[in-house]
Specification:
Layout lengths: L6 H11 L7 E4 L9 H16 L3 E6 L9 H13 L9 E2 L4 H13 L3 E4 L3 H7 L17 H13 L8 E4 L14 E5 L13 E3 L1 H11 L4 E5 L6 H10 L8 E5 L2 E3 L6 H9 L14 H7 L3 H11 L6 E3 L1 H13 L4 E2 L1 E2 L2 E6 L5 E7 L10 E7 L1 E5 L20 E3 L4 E9 L5 E8 L17 E2 L1 E3 L4 E8 L19 E9 L2 H4 L5 E4 L3 E5 L10 E6 L5 H9 L20 H13 L4 H9 L1 H13 L3 H16 L11 H12 L5 H14 L3 H8 L7 H14 L1 H8 L5 H12 L6 H12 L1
Helix pairs in contact: 2-11, 7-8, 11-12, 15-16, 16-17, 16-18, 17-18, 17-19, 18-19, 19-20, 22-24, 22-25, 24-25
Bound molecules: adenosine-5'-triphosphate and magnesium ion (MG).
């Protein structure tokens, strides 16, 4: 169990302690209409995790009440996902469709109690009669039907005597309830279609609000945990169970915030669009945020569980940085998997003074003493190195092989470049080199200084492999649709070369290709004749830097060299800092990790803290924006100071400027070195919080969008965000989002 108890576990503990329940019983109730995604993983971890922690049970239930979208292949995918994550659903999977007969009987009972009626208004009329947030609804004249009439009609609906939409069954609750969901909610609708499991028996299908609470009740569920958007449905949940008198030991609904991740879409509907549109290669495409996608890409279940644990459980929706998930997989594989040598873009090196061949003993786990295992690396006169590990005219801080600068071949010798061979077009095709016989790794007495060690493979024995380099599927932080797809999310390399032991010995399925990243033998396409490896994740987060490079001038390659290319375990000092940052200053672990490990960054951070005590806000900007600058520069090359960053954060904290504007100001600071307060004043960027200014802008937006106003008033509360967004947009991001939010909500009432 995680050390700190979340609010759901607190509720469960209290309920067990008070004797409300003897045993906790949860359920994970997906609708089998798509493959489960990482958001579902969160729900799986919560429901199965709580059951495990308190020695209870968790049911896996297919919530299959919508016959038009469901399919057994999705049922299988859901079972696979839960199993792969390591959870146990006991003897069998539950299906809401198995309860159709009993649910029908409950509905009949409600009719007999005078608590449900068959309504014959059409869809549009039903919506119209429901009223708005400010106006009560009207009850349909059909609500006066007698119990006998209702029973007769409902039975005929069931038998298939009517067309889709001709009648519905509704609960008789309160057409003027403040909670619009309580205005006589629909319980059953007619669907004359085949159900993937129930066949053609049924012509009426229960609605979520009716089926869910009763399914929970019938299974003896105690805690019905769902996401926040069901908050308003809770009243119906309680009404159905109470009205039917099912209140001795009954389940209660509790809501938590759903997971959202940047650079990702997270809805089965949107994912289905990608699959059907061919933008990805199926639901398990390694770029998909589905559990099957992560599995095929090479993520481990442990890394996903750990991710779900670190993001925590909250009652307010928020966006999680995808870098946090990537951190979890790196962290898991770092010490676990063998490190091997692979060259993605080979450049031939001929070592002129080497004759014969040898085999060099090289450990698979060079940095983790407790883990044993090694292989033989064949070495001979001709080898391949990575093309970009050689430069003829290198920039100042290029640490790899150049005509002047020797380099170490990982686990082997130091070589010096003697001659560069080019083709007719001036492309480098081969390097002639010399090796230093007394420089062998582990017994180096050459005295030659090198600045890095690079990967290589022996030309004669290396195996050719296909490598699939995956990157984020979307290049936008909050992707809206296909236009935000990252065109470079997949790059296939057909002739990468790998040391032979990886293929012949197969010490594992996952590897660190040194200095390249983590890779996984593709579980479907891999064969010994044609090995295929998927890139799981790079060795460090290269994304923020990449985003920057696209914007600025293309620069010569100045990739900082990581000699060994691994995520090193933390030193004692780093760990102490990490602990201070996470525990005392309450930073999240990804940010704390970034700061604690980087000398330039934590100096900068702590200096800023001296000016302003706002550890979390400062940390975020230092770990992201400032870090991006410091990747290419030294502190004294920056045009801004830690104190100025503190000033910038202060303006955000006291709401002088919005977060969005802060980013803009920061860009200015990088370029001009001006003081943030001056920039804000000079450019008139001060946040607008005055309702008198904001109000007319909102009125304008409302006037321009009558359709959305109508939809909002009809109950589509999600559109609030649309209106707020439009207002922010027309003020160039200067309006105070909170004030806008409140005003918009008030005006639309
Ligand atoms: P989607 O909108 O992606 O189709 P859904 O909510 O319709 O998702 P269901 O199959 O109905 O998907 O969900 C099964 C369970 O998983 C529900 O309890 C739901 O609340 C939960 N769940 C779905 N998405 C998320 C998410 N992003 N974060 C946490 N829990 C989620
Ligand atoms: Mg759904």
């Amino acid at each position: 169990m995680s050390e700190s108890k979340d609010f759901l576990r607190t509720i469960v503990e209290e309920d067990l302690k008070s004797g409300k329940y003897n045993e906790v019983h949860t359920r994970f109730p997906p609708e089998p209409n798509g493959f489960p995604h990482i958001g579902h993983a969160k729900s799986i971890c919560i429901n199965f995790g709580i059951a495990e922690d308190y020695h209870g049970h968790c049911n896996l239930r297919m919530d299959d009440t919508d016959p038009t979208k469901e399919d057994t292949k999705y049922v299988e995918a859901l079972k696979d996902a839960v199993e792969w994550l390591g959870f146990d659903w006991g003897n069998h999977v539950y299906y809401t469709s198995d309860y159709f007969p009993r649910l029908y009987d409950y509905a009949v009972e409600l009719i007999k109690m005078g608590k449900a009626y068959v309504d014959s208004l059409n869809e549009e009329e039903i919506r119209e009669y429901r009223g708005t947030v400010t106006e009560p609804g009207r009850r349909s004249k059909y609500a006066d039907r007698t119990i006998e009439e209702n029973l007769d009609l409902f039975e005929r609906m069931k038998k298939g005597e009517f067309k889709d939409g001709e009648h519905v069954l509704r609960a008789k609750i309160d057409m003027s309830a403040a909670n619009m969901k309580m205005r006589d909610p629909l319980l059953y609708r007619i669907r004359n279609v085949h159900h993937y499991r129930a066949g053609d028996t049924w012509h009426v299908y229960p609605m979520y609000d009716f089926a869910h609470c009763l399914s929970d009740y019938m299974e003896g569920i105690t805690h019905s945990i769902c996401t926040l958007e069901f908050e308003n449905n809770r009243d119906i949940y309680d009404w159905v169970l109470n009205t039917l008198g099912l209140n001795s030991t009954r389940p209660y609904q509790h809501e938590f915030a759903r997971l959202g991740i940047n650079y990702t879409v997270m809805s089965k509907r949107k994912l289905l669009e990608l699959v059907e549109g061919g933008q990805v290669d199926g639901w398990d495409d390694p770029r998909m945020p589905t559990i099957a996608g992560y599995k095929r890409r090479g993520y481990t279940p442990e890394s996903i569980l750990n991710f779900c644990d670190t993001i925590g459980i909250a009652k307010a929706n928020s966006m999680v940085d995808v870098a946090q998930l990537e951190f979890c997989i790196r962290d898991d594989l770092n010490t676990k998997v063998p490190r091997v040598l692979c060259v993605l873009d080979p450049l031939k090196v001929r070592i002129e003074n080497y004759e014969g061949s040898e085999e060099i003993d090289a450990p698979y786990y060079p940095h983790d003493v407790p883990k044993e295992g090694s292989r033989k690396l064949p070495f001979s006169k001709e080898i391949y190195i990575e093309r970009d590990d050689f430069m003829e005219n290198p920039p100042k801080d290029y640490y790899r092989l150049t005509p002047e600068q020797p380099v170490r071949l990982r686990h082997a010798y130091i070589i010096t470049c003697k001659e560069v061979i080019k083709d007719a077009n001036g492309n480098i095709v081969e390097i002639k080199a010399e090796y230093h016989p007394d420089s062998k790794s582990g017994s180096d007495s050459s005295g030659i200084k090198v600045k890095s060690a690079i990967q290589w493979v022996d030309a004669k024995t290396a195996k050719s492999i296909e490598v699939r380099l995956y990157d984020r599927l979307f290049s936008s932080e909050a992707p809206e649709g296909l236009e935000d797809l990252n065109p470079n999310s997949l790059q296939v390399i057909n002739n990468a070369l790998i040391e032979p032991a990886v293929i012949t010995e197969k010490p594992d399925e996952r590897f660190q290709f040194e200095r390249q990243g983590y890779f996984y033998a593709d579980p479907i396409d891999y064969s010994d004749e044609h090995p295929v490896f998927n890139k799981i994740v790079g060795l460090k987060d290269s994304w923020s830097k990449k985003a920057k490079v696209i914007k600025s001038e293309p620069k010569p390659q100045t990739k900082k060299v990581q000699v060994d290319g691994e995520i090193a375990p933390m030193s004692e000092a780093e760990e102490a800092r990490f602990n201070k940052y996470t525990i005392e200053l309450k930073l999240n672990s990804e940010v704390a990790n970034t700061l604690a490990r980087d000398e330039k960054l934590f100096h900068f951070y702590e200096e800023a803290l001296l000016t302003l005590n706002s550890p979390i806000s400062i940390a975020n900007i230092v770990a992201n924006e400032v870090a991006r600058e410091l990747k290419e520069k030294q502190i004294d090359e920056l045009k801004f100071t830690a104190t100025q960053i503190a000033q910038l954060v202060k303006m955000v904290d006291d709401e002088t400027i919005s977060n969005k504007i802060a980013k803009q100001v920061f860009e200015e600071m990088i370029e001009s070195g001006e003081n943030p307060t001056q920039i804000v004043e000079a450019k008139g960027l001060i946040q607008i919080s005055d309702p008198a200014i904001i109000s007319p802008i909102i009125d304008e937006v409302i006037a321009k969008n009558p359709d959305n106003v109508a939809k909002f008033k009809a109950g589509n509360s999600k559109l609030l965000g649309f209106f707020v967004g439009q207002v922010l947009k027309s003020t160039g991001g200067k309006a105070n989002p909170q004030v806008v939010n409140e005003l918009v909500a008030k005006k639309l009432k």
